[in-house]
Amino acid sequence: MAAILVTGSNGQLGNEIKVLAEAYPQYNFIYTDIDDLNITDYQQIDHFFTIHNIQYVINCAAYTAVDKAEQETDLARYINANAVKYLSQIAKKYHAYMIHISTDYVFDGKNYKPYTENDPICPTSAYGKTKAEGENELKIHAEKGIIIRTSWLYSSFGHNFVKTILKYGKERGNLNVVFDQIGSPTYARDLAKVVLEIIPQLANQNTIETYHFSNEGVSSWYDFAKVIVELKNIECDIHPIRTEDYPLPAPRPHYSVLDKAKIKKDFNIEIPYWKDSLKRCLELIKD
Ligand SMILES: NC(=O)c1ccc[n+]([C@@H]2O[C@H](COP(=O)([O-])OP(=O)(O)OC[C@H]3O[C@@H](n4cnc5c(N)ncnc54)[C@H](OP(=O)(O)O)[C@@H]3O)[C@@H](O)[C@H]2O)c1
Questions:
Q1: Is-contact 73 32, C-beta < 8 A?
Q2: Where are the domains of the chain?
Q3: In 3-state terms, what secondary structure has residue 99?
Q4: Radius of gyration of the chain measured on its C-alpha atoms
Q5: Cα dihedral angle (21, 195, 127, 228), rounded to 10 degrees?
Q6: φ, ψ at 225 (rounded to 5°)
Q7: Residue of 31, 63, 86, 127 marked active site
Q8: Which of 45, 212, 241, 283 has its CA 20 to 30 A from that of 141?
Q9: Which of 17, 19, 34 for mutating ligand 1's site (highest number of atoms within 8 Å of CB)?
Q10: How remote is the CA of residue 12 from the centroid of ligand 1, in Å?
């Protein structure tokens, strides 16, 4: 039975893969996180591959603390770039596919229309730079696989914008949220579903391809927050503010809508509208 190694499986995406994997009994999913498989440890990964018949790696492990990455850039680079090199080299050695997740932060956000996979990258934050380096390492060292760039990821698992708005919305009744950053929210369960749908279709692909995936539709963080509190009937006034009124260590792209035409065409997938996905996620988040 083909084994699928899931790294960073205690995170948002990793947990969603665990939920959906039950529908794929033809695969042996091996879930790991930093305690049992540290992806910055080449020998440990190699040893893992010698024990298990790994044919696919879903790399959900990452350094995702965007603001902290401005200070801890070396650590972020080690996890987001060096470790991707190790995984890619070892996957190549054992002829395994790499399925790697990247980010809209590889773009500078100056576009006025959705980013395609062919648009030049230009990360402005340390996090974005290390993720861009990770993409590059994969392209150099992996034999076959895909990079999926996604944006504004949330889930009922882990920490994310949805959970933050729910918490502070209830506690404060008044929130300021930026309205001048535009993107597309992505429910990690929808991303997990797409990853699992794609894997059986990779069999004849011996190249490395980049894809964009988010939920359908476009939002600002302000609009996203408004819908979160409305759907949960939380009495909270959400006020629109500018990015400059909420300074953070890492710069954010002002516009990071991803064009998903390629992934839809190549893998024949349907993508839910972001508000519909948000409703499904909120039903799982208990008060
Ligand atoms: N979150 C977003 O808004 C967003 C947007 C676009 C793209 N992405 C990308 O989507 C992917 C999944 O994101 P996510 O939100 O699911 O991430 P997440 O919730 O932060 O999960 C990442 C997991 O990786 C683990 N990890 C960290 N260092 C590791 C190491 N050296 N070895 C093994 N595991 C390690 C983390 O453990 P600890 O928690 O103990 O550190 C955590 O369990 C990432 O590649 C991310 O860059 C995320």
A1: no
A2: 3-159+184-216+256-273
A3: strand
A4: 19
A5: -70
A6: -65, -40
A7: 127
A8: 212
A9: 34
A10: 7
- Domain 3-159+184-216+256-273 is found in CATH 3.40.50.720: yes
Ligand 1, atom 19, lies closest to the CA of: 11
CA–CA gap between residue 5 and residue 166 (Å, rounded): 33
Residues with CB under 6 A from ligand 1: 7-8, 10-13, 33-34, 38-40, 60-62, 64, 79, 83, 101, 103, 131, 150-153, 158
Low-confidence stretches of the chain (pLDDT < 70) are none
Q: Global pTM?
A: 0.97
Measured from the Cα of 161, ligand 1's closest atom is 3
In the reported structure, the alpha carbon of residue 33 is separated from the centroid of ligand 1 by a whole-number distance in angstroms of: 10
Residue 127 known to be catalytic: yes
Residue 182 per-residue DSSP state? E
> Do 258 and 214 form a contact (C-beta atoms < 8 A)?
yes
Q: How many angstroms separate the CA atoms of 95 and 97, rounded?
A: 7
158-202 pLDDT, tens digit each:
999 999 999 999 999 999 999 999 999 999 999 999 999 999 999
Residue 115 DSSP code = B
* SS3 category, 269: coil
Q: What sign results for the dihedral spanned by CA atoms 270, 273, 274, 277?
A: negative
Q: What is the mean pLDDT of the chain?
A: 97
Other beta carbons within 10 angstroms of residue 65's beta carbon come to: 15
